[in-house]
Structures are given as structure tokens and as C-alpha cells.
Automatic annotation (TrEMBL):
Domain of life: Bacteria
InterPro entries per UniProt: KH_dom-like_a/b, OsmC/Ohr_fam, OsmC/Ohrsf
Coiled coil: none
Pfam families: OsmC
Protein name: Putative redox protein
Length: 143
């Protein structure tokens, strides 16, 4: 896996993935940024959410669960002093589907957290306290 990060001035960076996708990262105005993109640590948090959500949906599909939607809401706490690493992250999944089995949803979230989500496992090994929970929304209700 490769990535390229190019400084484009002030606190603005263009990040390009090895697969050819690009995203702008910027800093806050108080650090010379213009707020034109997410902060690098926000990207890390979003990456964790994407990695874990991908796993949960994949596991549910393989379990033949009628998953129709998945949202992950993440909240993170950071250290007060430099380096301002993540100290705690909580992932709350909202899984939508008609007739989802709670045991299968619980299993999918646990398997992602404990076995499959590389981002979650890497951050956990680095000392970040990561917690998860979920709620199931019947497919006929709005997510």
C-alpha cells in the first residue's frame, strides 16, 4: 500500500492513495489553514470508521443477514499534551434491516473489533481504549 502527500501551501496538503484517489487535508485557521478539508487526525478517525463498517457489513452479508444500511458514529478523545494522540474512541453502529438477528449483529461488531479491522486492532495495540456498541433499526424505519 502506498500514498503520496503533497504540500500545496500554508497548512494545505493533497493526499493521493495508491489506488489513485485524492483528498485534501487542511489545518485550522489558527495554524495557518483555511479549513478546506478534514484534519489528518480526522482522516485517521474516519479511516477507522470505514474499516470497521466495511467489516460489519461484509460479515452480516456472509451470514445472510438482510442488512440494508449501516452507519457508524465515532467519538474520540485526545491527549491534552503533544503528541495529542487518541486516548479513547467509541464506535456506535446503527444497522438497518428487516429481520436482522441481534446475535448476528453483535457477532459482526465483535469480529470486526477483535479480528478483522486492522485500523482498530492497530490503534488498540498502541494503547487507545476502543469501545463499540450498536443498535438495530427495523428496515421499515428510517435510519
Amino acid at each position: 500500500m502506498k500514498a503520496r502527500i503533497q504540500w500545496t501551501g500554508e497548512a494545505l496538503f493533497l493526499a493521493e492513495s495508491g489506488s489513485g484517489h485524492a483528498v485534501v487535508m487542511d489545518g485550522p485557521p489558527e495554524h495557518g489553514g483555511r479549513n478546506l478539508g478534514p484534519r489528518p487526525m480526522e482522516m485517521l478517525l474516519m479511516g477507522l470508521g470505514g474499516c470497521s463498517s466495511f467489516d460489519v457489513v461484509s460479515i452480516l452479508k456472509k451470514s445472510r443477514q438482510p442488512v440494508e444500511g449501516c452507519e457508524a458514529f465515532l467519538e474520540a478523545e485526545r491527549a491534552a499534551e503533544d503528541p495529542k494522540v487518541f486516548t479513547k474512541i467509541h464506535l456506535h453502529f446503527v444497522i438497518k434491516g428487516s429481520g436482522l438477528k441481534e446475535a448476528q449483529v453483535k457477532r459482526a461488531v465483535e469480529l470486526s473489533a477483535e479480528k478483522y479491522c486492522s485500523a482498530s486492532i492497530m490503534l488498540g495495540r498502541a494503547g487507545v481504549e476502543i469501545t463499540h456498541d450498536y443498535e438495530i433499526v427495523d428496515g421499515e424505519s428510517a435510519i
